[in-house]
């Protein structure tokens, strides 16, 4: 039952090239940055990553992206990552853009053993009809486009069939965790981390505080350890802000 690993490197040592990985976090909040760096240091590539976004230039998943370690992204948001946009538009990276709520539910469904579900999101658009550019060619033409999806009517409304997501690995970050893999997430880090953890066949969690079994109040556990196979403690990791905006104080020149 003790799932603690000696280091982040040990925790991802068997992650192979070409693996599919669900990565938790939202923007730069709650991202498993130590595990991402360990994957980068391992040298593996051709990764197929599922994450709400792809970090920023030189941080988070942006580190893997910059070294061409990612072949395909399934995401909702390009964000502030200029390299992500450049690789996509130049045909170097395949990108499946998914409505954010749909992406969350596809991950949750994968963890619950639900193969597919119907949702109204995307009905009447290219999400349902197909033709969204997944990969461009070098001349700017569409090399790979999204397929059309099954559409059905329920109570007079159009619903789109979306398939669940299950990945080879999942990398997540939690504020607290115990040796059995029970996790507690802090505030906005709840976004996507529990869902990604559920979707991974092998889920690795980095935790800021590691406690003994029984120390976590069961009512406060956000994700039970049955979804987590490995735990590693991280110490003193830098937390960045994706975009900082400030306003002028009163009296400053306009």
Instruction: Specify the CATH homologous superfamily of the largest domain.
Output: Glutaconate Coenzyme A-transferase
Mean pLDDT: 93
Q: What is the annotated CATH architecture of the largest domain?
A: 3-Layer(aba) Sandwich
Order of helices and strands: HEHEHEHEHEHEEEEEEHEE
Which class best fits the helix and strand makeup? Answer: alpha/beta
Q: What would the principal axes of the Cα set say about the shape?
A: globular
Largest sheet: 8 strands, mixed
How many independent structural domains? 2
> What's the count of strands?
13
Work out the helicity level: 10-25%
Which stretches of 5+ consecutive residues score pLDDT under 50? none
- CATH topology annotation of the largest domain: Glutaconate Coenzyme A-transferase
Query: Radius of gyration from the CA trace?
Result: 19 Å
């Amino acid at each position: 039952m003790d799932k603690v690993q000696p280091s982040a490197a040990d925790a991802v040592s068997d992650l192979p090239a070409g693996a599919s990985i669900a990565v938790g976090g939202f923007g730069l909040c709650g991202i498993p940055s130590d595990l991402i760096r360990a994957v980068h240091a391992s040298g593996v590539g051709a990764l197929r990553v599922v994450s709400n976004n792809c970090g920023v230039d030189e941080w988070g998943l942006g580190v893997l992206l910059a070294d061409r370690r990612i072949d395909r992204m399934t995401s909702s948001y390009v964000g502030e990552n200029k390299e992500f946009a450049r690789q996509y538009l130049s045909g170097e990276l395949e990108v499946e853009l998914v409505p954010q709520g749909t992406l969350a539910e596809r991950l949750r469904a994968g963890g619950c053993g639900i193969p597919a579900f119907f949702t109204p999101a995307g009905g009447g658009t290219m999400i349902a009809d197909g033709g969204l550019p997944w990969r461009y060619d070098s001349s700017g033409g569409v090399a790979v486009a999204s397929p059309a999806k099954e559409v059905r009517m329920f109570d007079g409304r159009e619903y789109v069939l979306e398939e669940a997501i299950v990945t080879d690995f999942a990398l997540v970050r939690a504020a607290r965790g115990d040796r059995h893999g029970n996790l507690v997430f802090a505030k906005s880090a709840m976004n996507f981390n529990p869902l990604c953890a559920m979707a991974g066949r092998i889920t690795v969690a980095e935790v800021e505080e590691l406690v003994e079994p029984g120390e976590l109040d069961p009512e406060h556990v956000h994700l039970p350890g049955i979804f987590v196979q490995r735990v590693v403690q991280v110490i003193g990791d830098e937390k960045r802000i994706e975009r900082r905006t400030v306003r002028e104080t009163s009296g400053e020149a306009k």
